[in-house]
Write a structure and sequence with these properties.
single chain; 65 residues; mainly alpha; 0% strand; rod-shaped
């Protein structure tokens, strides 16, 4: 079993704040850059899927309209 109680005792005082700062930078990069790219990719992929399905199956609506 791992001993996690004394883990913080071995770290210098500034290591906790430096780790927290790095973590906040990583979260900011994910929120500001990665999630918008993922959102645009998902919406674009869905639109492409609908477009291709309409090319193969035809437009929606009753037949012969």
């Amino acid at each position: 079993m791992l001993n996690t109680l004394n883990k913080n005792a071995a770290e210098p005082d500034g290591a906790h704040t430096a780790g927290r700062r790095e973590e906040l930078i990583v979260v900011a990069v994910i929120v500001a850059f990665i999630w918008p790219v993922v959102a645009v990719a998902v919406v674009g992929g869905y639109g492409f899927l609908i477009w291709m399905s309409q090319l193969i199956l035809g437009p929606p609506g009753p037949p012969g309209a």
